[in-house]
Amino acid sequence: MKRRLSEEMGGERKRFLWALFVALFFHAGVLALLMMPMKRSDLPVRVVNVSLVSGLPVSDEPAGGGEPDNEQPLPLVEPEPVSAPKPEPLPEPKPEPQPEPEPEPLPEPELEAPQPVATPEPVQPEPKADAPVSIPDEPTPPRQEKPELPVTPEPAPLPDPEAGLQSALERLRSQVSGSQPTELERKLARLQKKVNESGPPSNLYRRSGRGSGGEGMPPLTPYDSYVSTAVGIITRNWSFSASLLRETGGVEAYVAFTVGIDGSIQDITFDRPSVSGYFNQTVTKALERSSPLPVVPPDVSIRPMRIGLIFTPEGIE
């Protein structure tokens, strides 16, 4: 690449020198042509008077017999030297932009191989003749440590079969005693039976017969229709396990609650709880999960209303 650039620059210089030489030669010729008339005008000019008369003898003497005129030569008028036009200075040629030379790649430094450092040999002192020669002591062999024997863990004591049997018997007794109804539960069952025979505690639990407008069945009122919708929602949110009920007899809960205009369930009360506390808890949770119910229509009630439902293991009445 550098050689090519140098060749191009040498060709450009040759062409420039040839053009400069031709221009100088042309200007020198023009100046020579301009100087030639100036040299011819410097020669002396002779003036001759000639008279043209016919029939007269030609003689060398002047006419009239007089003395010949002393012709005085006219003074020569030297022409003014014509100044040669000054040659106009040639415009200096603009230097052509030279391409920037590419930077030469730096030579990679040669890594010198590390020379091994010569370790000086220790100078052994010459033993003195008079000094006694000391004999080095023999090195004592290192003590060999005995490997530690693995410690075997002591076996865990076997459980006493009599203690396990005793604890199992106690658990069985507690289960048997818990499955039997207590005296309080028996009293509640008897009280529940009497209440069932006497009828519902209030008119909240008395409703008109259900029907769909068929023969012998009156149509549902707006109130009964809203209560039926509420019962369906509560039933879907109510879940209990019948196996956890100790007895199904007397398991019946009369529950009253207030429904706001916005459908919220408030003031849950058990007018007649069942004999099973577990059953009563499932009823309360079902009502809490079902809140809020649908908004109460104006044709049903324009103020919060009280609703009573009967919960049994078979369903809601």
Automatic annotation (TrEMBL):
Biased composition regions of type Pro residues, renumbered to the chain: 76-88, 150-160
Taxonomic superkingdom: Bacteria
Region (Disordered): 58-163, 191-220
Organism per entry: Prosthecochloris vibrioformis (Chlorobium vibrioforme)
Biased composition (Acidic residues): 99-111
Protein name: TonB C-terminal domain-containing protein
